[in-house]
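Morning run. Coffee first, then this:
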Amino acid sequence: MTARRFSYWFLFAIFIVAIVIGAIRPLRVSPMYQAIGMIQFGAMAFAAWTLGAREMTSTSRGPRLLALSGIFLITPFALLALLWVGLGPPWQATPAENQMRYLVLTAMAIAIVVGFVVLREALSEADVKFRSSVGFATILLAGPLYLLFDALAFGVSTARLHGGEVPSAFRDLNTVTEMILFLAGALTYIATAAFAVSLGRARWLGRGAARAFMIVSLVALLLLVIRGLHFPDPHALSTPWYTNPGFIVGIPAVPFIIPFLFGVVLLQRAGESDAAPASPTD
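And here it is:
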């Protein structure tokens, strides 16, 4: 029990550490950043396994679904911990590094969608269907939009890597690309809010935690809407980008933060013998 409790809090801590380390550009020195990434990833994998990921091999359907959903939902930031050490924001990274960034973002989006699909199945088993269906529908819409955005961004990075100039076709699509990212982020925040309510109904989250996750998701959605379809140019902002809420909530990986936290909670539930909740009405 002590090891599982430690793993639970360790995953939250290493998640924050991975984000901070990923933003410190001077750490991008080979082979230091590879070593740091492997240590972070290995530590997250071990903690997840100790917490409840091992239940994916369980013969019991409930814990197995919870464990699988939790694994997929924490995967995005496990990949960030492994590969983004010292990468910094896109305007600081090289074109080759940005190619890797958008490939990883593609894998992150796929993992989030799969994690939520498996979670919806688990919630259906717990007879919590309506709101999880709303989350299921919106995340299925968000997933292809993320893939399209990442593919276009990868194309821009590839053009810069090989020619130094972005083809006019990509520049003409810039407004469309920003709208795609806006819609993907907005739909993800809606899905997260809906799943937070469902997790509370299933008693896999406490009422206070479920309400907090829902409010944070809806506030992030509101900030995104207030910002508008256009993604701000960080160099044109009157204040540093990290003090601009509308900029932060629109960063492609930010909408995946609360799903990661869901994943940690689901792994904890999977590892508990009483993981199957009562069956409330929805």
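The chain has a mean pLDDT of 90. Good start to the day.
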